[in-house]
Amino acid sequence: MIKENTQIGQDCNIFQGAILGEIPQDLKFENEYSILTIGNNTTIREYVTINRGTKDRCETTIGNNILMMAYVHVGHDTKVDDNVIIANSVQIGGHVEINQNAIIGGSTPIHQFSKIGAFSIIGGGLRIVQDIPPYIIAAGEPLKFSGINSIGLRRNNFSAEDRKTIKHAYKYIYKSGLNRSEAIKKIEHSFSNKKLVQSIISFIKSSNRGIIS
Q1: Active site residue: 21, 53, 73, 77, which one?
Q2: Do residues 38 and 8 lie in contact, with contact meaning Cβ atoms separated by under 8 Å?
Q3: C-alpha–C-alpha distance, residues 38 and 59, integer Å
Q4: How many structural domains are present in the chain?
Q5: Would you say residue 1 lies in a domain?
């Protein structure tokens, strides 16, 4: 069922039982105008539910080339960038941001306002209550850093040098014994001309919920 105020791009596949653009599950919602936008070439499998936005962002945004498997729920004002894979029964709270090429394992609940970095991969059935930095594997209970997503990075044409740079940057954050501020200063000094490292630093500095340990 596709509700009004829903905009769907070209070449999308919408399967039986999906409900797209229903009003938010938010007690503060006052029937204000808001929309759900879905990009091109996106697949939404059986019984997925995606709520439109509230007055906070006025929009829930699903990007291009997304695979959203059965029974996923996407809360209001969430933003999902391009090329993301979300496995069965993932439950996404409101105001979540999922950056490009992230992969989220099945039956994972994601706390509202959480951010998931680009090219990260999260194991199935694991509760996300803090932000997941880009380019990493997140696993374990509680969820923690489990190395960089080497396979995913290779598949997306990151060079050996790029992967080495990312790995060294995360050593400062997670393996050096430095506190977070000290680690960032060390990275900024050591990799000042590396765009990939700057994206890691920017993500950490902009985190409101804090990153996983």
Answers
A1: 77
A2: yes
A3: 11
A4: 2
A5: no
Q: What is the pLDDT of residues 122-151, one digit of tens each?
A: 999 999 999 999 999 999 999 999 999 999
8 Å CB contact between 22 and 54? no
Q: Scan for tokens 């194991």, then name that residue.
A: 123
Rounded distance, CA 59 to CA 66, Å? 17
The enclosing domain of 192 has a CATH number of 1.20.1180.10
Among candidate residues 39, 63, 94, 105, the one labeled active-site is 94
Range of the domain at 67: 6-150
Q: What are the tens digits of pLDDT across the range 54-67? A: 999 999 999 999 99
User: Looking at 115, 132, 150, which one is the last position of a domain?
Assistant: 150
Work out whether strand 121-122 and strand 85-86 pair parallel, antiparallel, or are unpaired.
unpaired
Kindly name the residue from 21, 76, 93, 95 that is annotated as catalytic.
76
* In a shared domain, residues 104 and 175: no
- 168 included as an active-site residue: no
Whether 94 is catalytic: yes
Contact 173, 182 (CB under 8 A): no
121 and 52 in a common domain: yes
- With H, G, I as helix, E, B as strand and everything else as coil, classify residue 31: coil
Place of tokens 């919602």: 29
* 76 belongs to the catalytic site: yes
Cis amide linkage into residue 109, ω under 30° from 0: no
| CA 19/CA 210 separation, integer angstroms | 32
